[in-house]
Amino acid sequence: MKICYILNATTPYGGSTKAFLSLLNEEIRRGVTPFIVLPDKQGIYNELREAGIDVFSTIYRPGAYPNLGSLKDYFLFLPRLLARLSVNAKATYLLTKEIKKRHIDLIHTNVSVIDIGYRCSRILKLPHIYHIREYADLDFKIHYFPCKKTFHRHLDQEHSYSICITKGIQRHHEQHKSSRSKVIYDGIRPMVSSFPCTFDDGYLLYAGRIQYTKGLDMLLEAYALCVKRHETVLPLKIAGGQTSANYFRSIKEFIEKNKLSERISFLGERKDLDELMSKATALIVPSRHEGFGLCMPEAMFKGCLVVAHNTAGTKEQLDNGVQETGQEIALRFESIEQLASILHTVSIADANVYNDMKLRAFNVVNQLYTSERSAEQVYDFYNEIIKHEHH
């Protein structure tokens, strides 16, 4: 089975790339021959080539309108949009030739906002899967070109299929009644044989991009509220890269204004997140509207207590945990006030108080979100699609 995978980025730190690499390794074991398309030759490009995988790089951009974050963006909106359409048209032409040359069976686009794979599939009459990992509009204020309804019509076309990483995302994109859409949760890592060894090093951890949608500002407000009340609260470590200079500046100003600099440290993008999670007292996931929330099950796999915003993808994971075990697998919050209270409670709690919760969480993710389970479901979907297309 020859599958063309199209990624939106080469950075190894993004959740969509992490999820893809976990899927890729398992699908290769099942006999898939991958052809991977990337927008540049950075990040994972050379790693994939060195592994002997067929990789092709050409410039392309999201099938969405350019962002409008400043006055300059408004002035350059039209030329940027035209340039984006031109670049994607060229990429579609080049990629169509490469796919045809390799006799590909199916095209699998790793996110919903890249549309060159869909366009190639129309030309070649090949089945195409959109792997919808994001709300897009709610998560990142991304607006599909020419509109969201057009994207939804693409999903309903002949030869078009979708994989949604949560039921919430499937409903958001109106695919919950479609027989050509599957909910398949991301595979985080291979199944683990036993609960991991952990060491509580006495700090709270935030792991994710420093951007508005991830809700770091809400976490800091709750943290500052604890300090203002003279409540005990552990130091906070922030692991992640910044994507908006303005947002990062506002975060730094808030920390300085509230005299939190000695309590909060910025670690940048890290390759040792597993170790950081193993040693953290708790991981805080304050995202406003997370598609899935990859860092949450990652932490649970490492035996780390999780405090999560009761919304979107994180809520669905928490609800799955209750459905599986009958009890909570993490601490939920719905307001800054509630989060502040939890931060204080977690900071002063005895080391063993949350052991049962952490074990339940580990057992749930080790059942629902393993790379083997996810890859098996995707592979079965590939076979179902190819069988359907040939009849």
Give the secondary structure arrangement, pairings included.
Elements (H helix, E strand, L loop, with lengths): L1 E5 L8 H15 L3 E6 L6 H6 L3 E4 L13 H5 L1 H26 L3 E4 L6 H9 L3 E5 L4 H4 L7 H8 L4 E5 L2 H6 L8 E3 L20 E4 L8 H13 L7 E4 L5 H13 L6 E5 L4 H7 L2 E4 L9 H7 L4 E4 L2 H14 L5 E3 L2 H13 L6 H14 L2 H19 L2
Parallel strand pairs: 1-2, 1-4, 2-3, 4-5, 5-6, 6-7, 8-9, 8-11, 9-10, 11-12, 12-13
Describe this structure in words.
The structure is a single chain. The chain has 391 residues and is of the alpha/beta class. The chain has 2 domains: 2-189 and 370-389, Glycogen Phosphorylase B (Rossmann fold, 3-Layer(aba) Sandwich), CATH 3.40.50.2000; 204-368, Glycogen Phosphorylase B (Rossmann fold, 3-Layer(aba) Sandwich). Helix content is 46%, strand content 14%. It contains 16 helices and 13 strands. The strands form 2 sheets. The chain has a 7-stranded parallel beta sheet, sandwiched between helices. Strands 10-9-8-11-12-13 form a 6-stranded parallel beta sheet, with helices on both faces. Helix 1 (15-29) links the parallel strand 1 and strand 2 (33-38). The model has no long low-confidence stretch (mean pLDDT 93).
Major beta sheet summary: 7 strands, parallel
For the biggest β-sheet, the strand order reads 3-2-1-4-5-6-7
The assigned structural class equals alpha/beta
Model regions low in confidence, pLDDT < 50 over at least 5 residues? none
Task: Give me the CATH fold name of the largest domain.
Answer: Rossmann fold
Would you identify the CATH H-level superfamily of the largest domain?
A: Glycogen Phosphorylase B
Relative strand content: 5-15%
Oligomer: single chain
Series of H and E elements: EHEHEHHEHEHHEHEEHEHEHEHEHEHHH
The number of distinct structural domains comes to 2
Mean pLDDT: 93
Helix content: 40-55%
